[in-house]
Design a protein that fits this description.
Anoctamin_TM, transmembrane, Anoctamin/TMEM 16, mainly alpha, 27 helices
């Protein structure tokens, strides 16, 4: 199947395989930096940070253009110069080859380092900005930098949504398209989601069949579900490995240096999460049973809502507090690499999600159902004392007599149905609908406040007898040139979008997999419900990335990371819980959760031990079988590896070796440093493809110390108006060199005379 990106290519496609239309779609902008000078204590702090930032960008071979943004913010557009970009790409490819990530040996010519995909170009520019210039949002040196993101391709996004919304499965070529644009990290998520969606077909069919023709708590379905969950995890490992080979990311994690001396301790957060969240959930659970199944006094229909209100208010709040604590704990643990930091965050998030998502059902299955007759008498005594105290009627019974109390056998199934259907619908609405409505309301509110401010200004001018001045309008309207107005408007809209959190999408799918592995034996239709939900999820996530969130920075990845550990744990734990529930509730054919009469503690323990050992044995068998089967991708990889080694041996025997730079040795990868060395910076900045640009980014024909006023701007505008290039080249022609870019930005920050000059600047006739 042909790539959708080919539709954006043309006969004059740019070098390296990146369609020229993709580069011109955003006027050649690689990244947008949002600089909030309004948050500075004074103009001196803002101008100092801004000047340092622009100079650092130029020092590593990056061009910059500055435009005014909304609400006292600057839009800094960044583009890489071709020669420094090619050198950096070539250096990274050499590093990958030395570490075994790339099989093909890079050519000796550094100028051959042309990015093959847009994601590779953006990854390289990202490292030049963050690790070369030392610029990133949130760093202490550039505290006023709020955002850094690449721009969306509007036409490509619309075409993607139109095409993929009508398809059931994404082809391998379409996954490659996602990887080419958004990078391997996002592509792995969609590959994982599609693989999971495909896997759900089998348990959905089996579960629906068992729901129709088998009694509740079917042993056949319980065994089939546990086996399928195990097989899915092991098959995904194989699929992930094939994608690593295909996308040349196998061994990427080995490039990053890790701190082996420090091993963070995750126990304090685990204890805090279990104790705090577990206490709240268990307390609300007890209150809910007391009010709904024991209490029979006045206002019962209203009092039954108290536990729901408490859970809805306290659990998300405490989860947010614990999540913030987990992030601070991760920062305190001071991980050296992004991969290590994210892996630790995954483990912490999983603990919180496990307690909030699974504990209510586990309490029902293993506390309420088997021990309800023991627990409820204590709730009865406590409830009688509490209610009599508040009602001042100690002699009037408010609770149902114990002989009338019966355990709600439908409670367990109702909870599972809620998490399988209702919770999924709520997640979809909050994930897509709420952000969309919020963004639209904020836009309306912003338009209203701007119109109100303009009207107030006009009334004040009329009252003072002054003529209306264009300077009183918002800064971006004054500074925007007609040919850039639509583009800048789109950029400003993208700055208001939410940051895409791929970890949240992974969490959602992993939690869903856990519900199926742990509790679907209660209601076998759970896989079918998840199958329908994920058909929508596959499309809604793409819409979210394309329309509702800022474009994520393309990042390389070797798979789904530590989420795979979570899947393995849930598959193992699911085999235990399924076996335990089948033993406890096996005799009831109507799906009710009534306890079997002959349940004993030692037999339950024996069942759990047997199920665990059977799972471990089956996992070894599945892993052995999968390891003996080679996929076409792995066969091709082995063949290529053999041929490359043979070619290397032939070149060595013929005396044709290759000497690589010492700086690219495996023990000192550039990726692992927060800055480039002085030699590397000079290597990047001393040579430029444009002979009219100095190493510091200035034009030798431009006096760097000249004053920018109305006359100089008018002269520059006349020169630019004679320029015959395209819109992309014209966009980057306004501010020649980093010093001129600094002067323009400082004038906007200080609201100096430049603003009066810009409003009368001659425009290009388009």
């Amino acid at each position: 199947m042909e790539s959708l990106l080919k539709d954006f290519n043309s006969s004059d496609a740019s070098e390296g395989g990146i369609p020229k239309k993709l580069l011109e779609d955003n006027l050649g902008v690689d990244y947008v930096l949002l600089f909030n000078y309004g948050a500075a204590e004074n103009h001196t702090q803002a101008t100092k940070q801004y000047r340092s930032m622009i100079r650092a960008l130029s020092a590593v071979g990056l061009e910059s253009e500055t435009r005014a943004g909304d609400d006292d913010k600057l839009l800094i557009f960044v583009r890489a110069r071709e020669e420094p970009l090619r050198k950096t790409v070539h250096r990274f490819r050499v590093r990958d080859w030395l570490h075994g990530v790339r099989q093909a040996q890079p050519p000796d010519d550094e100028d051959a380092g042309i990015p093959e995909r847009e994601s590779e170009r953006l990854q390289t520019v990202f490292y030049m900005i963050v690790f070369g210039a030392g610029i990133s949002p949130g760093c202490e040196e550039y505290s006023l930098l709020e955002q850094m993101f690449p721009l969306h391709h509007k036409d490509l996004n619309i075409e993607w949504i139109r095409k993929y919304s009508s398809k059931t499965f994404l082809s391998a070529r379409e996954l490659d398209d996602i990887r080419d644009v958004h990078g391997e990290h996002v592509a792995f998520y969609f590959a994982f989601l599609q693989f999971y969606f495909t896997f759900l077909i089998i348990p959905a069919v089996i579960g629906f069949f068992c729901w129709l023709f088998f009694p509740g708590f079917s042993i056949f379905y319980g065994i089939a579900n546990s086996v399928l969950c195990l097989v899915y995890v092991e098959m995904w490992k194989r699929r992930q490995g094939d994608l690593n080979i295909h996308w040349q990311t196998r061994g990427v994690s080995e490039i990053r240096m890790t701190r082996k001396a420090f091993k963070p301790e995750g126990l304090p957060l685990a204890i805090a999460s279990i104790v705090s969240l577990g206490t709240i959930i268990a307390a609300c659970f007890a209150v809910e049973i007391l009010l709904s199944e024991v209490y029979d006094g006045p206002l019962k229909q209203y009092l039954c809502l108290i536990p729901t209100i408490l859970v809805s208010a306290l659990v998300p709040t405490l989860s947010g507090i614990l999540t913030g604590f987990a992030r601070k704990l991760n920062d305190f643990e001071n991980y050296e690499t992004v991969d290590a930091y994210e892996a630790a965050m995954v483990h912490k998030h999983f603990i919180i999600d496990f307690v909030t998502s699974y504990l209510p059902v586990l309490l029902t299955a293993f506390v309420y159902m088997p021990l309800g007759s023991i627990i409820v008498p204590h709730l009865d005594v406590l409830g009688s004392y509490t209610l009599s105290t508040f009602t001042n009627e100690p002699d009037k019974p408010k609770l149902t007599p114990m002989k009338e109390f019966n355990i709600n056998s439908r409670r367990l199934r109702d909870q599972v149905i809620y998490f399988a259907i209702t919770a999924q619908v709520i997640d979809q609405v909050t994930e897509i609908g709420v952000p969309y409505v919020k963004r639209k309301l904020m836009q309306k509110y912003k338009e209203y406040t701007e119109k109100k401010a303009e009207k107030k200004e006009e009334e004040q001018q009329q009252k003072d007898g002054r003529d209306p001045s264009p300077v009183s309008h918002t800064r971006q309207v004054i500074a925007d040139r007609p040919e850039e107005a639509a583009f800048l408007k789109r950029v400003r809209e993208e700055t208001t979008l939410e940051t895409y959190d791929i970890a949240a999408d992974f969490r959602e799918m992993v939690v869903q997999f856990g519900h199926m592995s742990l509790f679907s034996v209660v209601w076998p239709v759970v896989p079918l419900a998840f199958l329908c939900n994920n058909w929508i999820e596959l499309r809604s996530d793409l819409i979210k990335i394309c329309l509702e969130c800022r474009r994520p920075i393309p990042m390389r990845a070797e798979g789904i990371g530590s989420w795979l550990d979570s899947l393995e744990f849930l598959a193992w734990f699911g085999s235990i819980t399924s076996a335990a529930m089948l033993y406890m509730f096996r005799s009831h054919g109507d799906g009710a959760g009534e306890l079997t009469s002959d349940v004993t503690g030692w037999m339950l323990l024996l069942t759990i031990i047997f199920a665990e050992h059977a799972y471990l044995l089956l996992r070894w068998v599945v892993q052995t079988i999968i390891a003996t089967v080679d996929t076409p991708t792995r066969k091709m990889h082995k063949a290529q590896k053999y041929l490359l080694r043979k070619q290397h041996m032939d070149s060595m025997t013929s005396g044709q070796g290759t000497n690589w730079e010492e700086s690219s040795a495996p023990n000192t990868p550039h990726h692992d440093r927060t800055t480039f060395t002085d030699d590397e910076k000079s290597e990047i900045t001393e040579k430029h493809p444009n002979p009219e640009v100095r190493a510091d980014g200035t034009d030798p024909n431009l006096d760097p110390d000249k004053h920018i006023d109305r006359q100089t701007l008018e002269a520059d505008a006349r020169d630019v108006s004679k320029f015959s290039g395209n819109d992309m080249d014209y966009f980057w022609k306004h501010q020649r060199g980093w010093k001129e870019c600094v002067k323009v930005g400082e004038a906007i920050i200080c609201d100096g005379p430049l603003m009066e000059a810009v409003q009368d600047e001659p425009k290009k006739d388009v």
